[in-house]
TrEMBL record:
The lineage of its organism: Bacteria, Pseudomonadati, Pseudomonadota, Betaproteobacteria, Burkholderiales. The Tat system comprises two distinct complexes: a TatABC complex, containing multiple copies of TatA, TatB and TatC subunits, and a separate TatA complex, containing only TatA subunits. Substrates initially bind to the TatABC complex, which probably triggers association of the separate TatA complex to form the active translocon. It comes from the Bacteria. GO terms for molecular function: protein transmembrane transporter activity. NCBIfam families: tatB. It is found in: Cell membrane; Membrane. Its main location: membrane. Part of the twin-arginine translocation (Tat) system that transports large folded proteins containing a characteristic twin-arginine motif in their signal peptide across membranes. Together with TatC, TatB is part of a receptor directly interacting with Tat signal peptides. TatB may form an oligomeric binding site that transiently accommodates folded Tat precursor proteins before their translocation. This is Sec-independent protein translocase protein TatB. Belongs to the TatB family.
Amino acid sequence: MIDIGLSKMALIGAVALIVIGPEKLPRVARTVGTLLGKAQRYVSDVKAEVNRSMELDELRKMKDTVEGAARDVQQSIQTGASEFEKDWAAATDMSTPEPFEPAVVVPAYKHPGKNWRLKRGATPQWYKSRSGVRTKAQSGAARVARYRPQKFH
């Protein structure tokens, strides 16, 4: 970009003050600022467009290489599959019958029968009773009635 130092900026400002005048200088400075802002936005948009087009070209090249690799893999799989089919056909040839082996009987799946509605905590019941943890929910009125001091007659 343009290399303008502080001294050059002061010289340009002094000349503008003399030529334009102090009344019109703020309006001209605002106009120049907006024009410079628009120019910078335009330049940044052009740079972004160029970068996008370069990235698009790179992605196309990458796509071509990936497609070529995929074709190579597909061809190797097809040749391997044809070799496998030949080997399979040779191995499963029924011209020489083998003795029959009974299949292994696998028992049917049986659900464990857990009750999903029953909440089971990880803390053992004996620990809860020893440490004084309440295991039963009790309403406020029932709690008051239970722990109300007994009257002595």
